[in-house]
C-alpha cells in the first residue's frame, strides 16, 4: 500500500482532483477489484459503487462476457483504422445497432473515444452542417448554466459550470449559457433561451445543447413540458437541438435514452459512458437523417475531423456485447423499478431527518439535496461543506458516492449500476440515512 501510494504521488497526475491534496494525503483509495455493484480496495474493504464509478458502469463490474468479447476480437483483429473510408465489421454492426435503438430518424453515427470528444465533435459537425449550406455565421452554441459537456476545448466552453473554465481560461468564443430549469419555471427558462437567441441573432446560432438530465450539475430533472418547449423554440428559430446523452444513455433513466422520457426527438445526440459500461473507451455522435442527407450532398472532399480510435474494432465489439446484455437482462426495466424503489426508500429517510430537502430520481439517476431549512429552501453556508461531509461518512460506511456544491448547493448524487436489486437498494438507503444522520448531529440538529 505504501509503495503504491508513494508511486501514485510521484508519477500520477489525477484527473479532476486536487494535486495538493494528493501530495499531502496520497490517493484517497486504491481500488483493486470489482464485482457487480461492488468495488474492493487493496486493503480488502468493499464498497457499494453508488455512482457507477463515473456514471458509466451500467451493467456492473466484473462481467466476464465483455472481457471474453474483447479477447476474441483482439485475437482476430485488435485495431484497424477507419480513416480514408477504411472500415471493419464491428464498427458497421455497432453503428447499425445504435441506429436501431435511438429515437426515430437518428441513423448515422460518428464514433469517438469518449464524452468530451463526442460533444467536441458535435460542435464541429453542426458548424460544418451550416457552413456547407452557405451559412458560415451560424456558429454560436447555446447551453445551460450548471451543464456539463466535457473538458476538451469546445466541450469545456459548452459546459456551463464556471469552475471548469478557470483552469486554463475560457477555451473558445461563440458560446452562450442561459438559465437552466433548476429553481426556474419552464417559462422563465425558455424566456432566457429566447432572449439569448434574439440578442445574438438567430442567424448566428448553430445549436442548443442540453443534457436530458443535468448530471454533474446536481442531477437536475426538467419539468414535464420543458423539452417540448425547447423543441418548439429550436424549430421556430431554425436552430439544431443537441441532446447530450453521455450520462443518460443506455438505460440509466429507465428508458434506453434519457430524452425519451419527454417524447422529444433531437437533431443530434451524443453518447459515451454506458455504451460500453466503461469497459472500453468509446463515444459517438448520432445525427438525424436530414443532417446526414445534407452532409452526403454538400460535404465535399475530406471531412478533416476524426480520432485514431474512432470506430475502434475492439471497443465496438465490447459495446455490442454490452448493449446485448442490457437488452437480454432487461436492465432498462430494472433501472425504472429499482429507481422507484430507491426514491421510495429515500422519501422515508426524508421523514426521519431535518436537513433533507428535495429528492429527485428518474430511473437510477437521482439526488438528495440537503438544506438548512427544507421548508423555505434555505441553503447551508458554503463553509460548512455539508454534502462533502456526508460523502466522507458514506465512504467510511462503504459507499462510493459524489457531491455537488456549485452555487451554494449541497447535493448528493446517485447512479448505481443498473443490475442493483431490492436488497442492495435497502442496504444503500440505510447507509444514506446513517451518513446524513451523523452529519446532522455534528451540526447540532436533532432528528425527530
TrEMBL record:
Keyword annotations for this protein?
Answer: Aminotransferase, Pyridoxal phosphate, Transferase
Q: Name it.
A: Aspartate aminotransferase family protein
Q: Which residues cross the membrane?
A: none
Q: Name one Pfam family in it.
A: Aminotran_3
Question: GO MF terms on file?
Answer: pyridoxal phosphate binding; transaminase activity
Cross-referenced InterPro entries, in alphabetical order?
Answer: Aminotrans_3, Aminotrans_3_PPA_site, PyrdxlP-dep_Trfase, PyrdxlP-dep_Trfase_major, PyrdxlP-dep_Trfase_small
Q: Does the keyword Hydrolase apply?
A: no
The family note in this entry says:
Belongs to the class-III pyridoxal-phosphate-dependent aminotransferase family.
Amino acid at each position: 500500500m505504501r509503495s503504491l501510494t508513494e508511486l501514485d504521488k510521484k508519477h500520477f497526475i489525477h484527473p479532476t482532483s486536487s494535486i495538493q491534496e494528493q501530495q499531502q494525503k496520497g490517493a484517497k483509495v486504491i481500488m483493486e477489484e470489482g464485482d457487480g455493484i461492488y468495488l474492493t480496495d487493496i486493503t480488502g474493504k468493499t464498497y457499494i459503487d453508488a455512482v457507477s464509478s463515473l456514471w458509466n458502469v451500467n451493467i456492473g463490474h466484473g462481467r466476464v462476457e465483455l472481457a471474453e468479447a474483447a479477447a476474441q476480437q483482439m485475437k482476430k483483429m485488435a485495431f484497424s483504422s477507419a480513416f480514408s473510408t477504411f472500415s471493419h465489421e464491428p464498427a458497421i454492426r455497432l453503428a447499425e445497432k445504435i441506429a436501431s435503438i435511438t429515437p426515430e430518424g437518428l441513423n448515422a453515427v460518428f464514433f469517438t473515444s469518449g464524452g468530451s470528444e463526442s460533444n467536441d465533435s458535435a460542435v464541429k459537425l453542426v458548424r460544418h452542417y451550416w457552413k456547407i449550406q452557405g451559412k458560415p455565421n451560424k456558429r454560436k452554441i447555446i447551453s445551460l448554466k450548471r451543464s456539463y459537456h466535457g473538458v476538451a476545448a469546445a466541450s469545456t466552453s459548452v459546459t456551463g459550470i464556471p469552475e471548469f473554465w478557470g483552469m486554463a481560461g475560457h477555451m473558445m468564443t461563440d458560446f452562450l449559457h442561459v438559465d437552466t430549469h433548476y429553481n426556474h419555471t419552464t417559462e422563465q427558462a425558455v424566456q432566457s433561451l429566447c432572449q439569448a437567441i434574439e440578442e445574438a441573432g438567430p442567424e448566428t446560432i448553430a445549436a442548443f445543447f442540453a443534457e436530458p438530465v443535468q448530471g454533474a450539475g446536481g442531477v437536475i430533472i426538467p419539468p414535464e413540458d420543458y423539452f417540448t418547449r425547447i423543441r418548439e423554440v429550436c424549430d421556430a428559430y431554425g436552430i439544431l437541438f443537441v441532446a447530450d446523452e453521455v450520462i443518460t444513455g443506455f438505460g440509466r433513466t429507465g428508458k434506453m435514452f434519457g430524452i425519451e422520457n419527454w417524447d422529444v426527438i433531437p437533431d443530434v445526440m451524443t453518447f459515451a459512458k454506458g455504451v460500453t459500461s466503461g469497459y472500453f473507451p468509446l463515444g459517438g455522435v448520432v445525427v438525424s437523417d436530414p443532417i446526414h442527407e445534407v452532409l452526403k450532398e454538400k460535404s465535399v472532399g475530406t471531412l478533416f475531423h476524426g480520432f485514431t480510435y474512432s470506430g475502434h474494432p475492439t471497443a465496438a465489439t465490447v459495446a455490442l456485447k454490452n448493449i446485448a446484455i442490457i437488452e437480454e437482462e432487461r436492465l432498462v426495466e430494472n433501472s425504472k423499478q429499482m429507481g422507484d424503489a430507491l426514491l421510495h426508500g429515500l422519501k422515508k429517510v426524508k421523514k426521519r431527518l431535518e436537513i433533507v430537502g428535495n429528492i429527485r430520481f428518474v430511473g437510477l439517476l437521482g439526488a438528495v439535496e440537503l438544506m438548512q431549512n427544507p421548508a423555505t429552501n434555505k441553503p447551508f453556508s458554503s463553509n460548512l461543506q455539508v454534502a462533502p461531509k456526508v460523502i466522507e461518512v458514506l465512504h467510511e460506511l462503504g459507499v462510493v458516492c459524489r457531491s455537488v456544491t456549485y452555487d451554494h448547493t449541497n447535493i448528493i448524487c446517485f447512479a448505481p449500476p443498473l443490475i442493483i436489486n431490492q436488497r442492495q437498494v435497502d442496504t444503500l438507503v440505510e447507509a444514506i440515512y446513517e451518513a446524513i444522520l451523523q452529519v446532522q448531529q455534528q451540526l447540532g440538529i436533532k432528528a425527530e
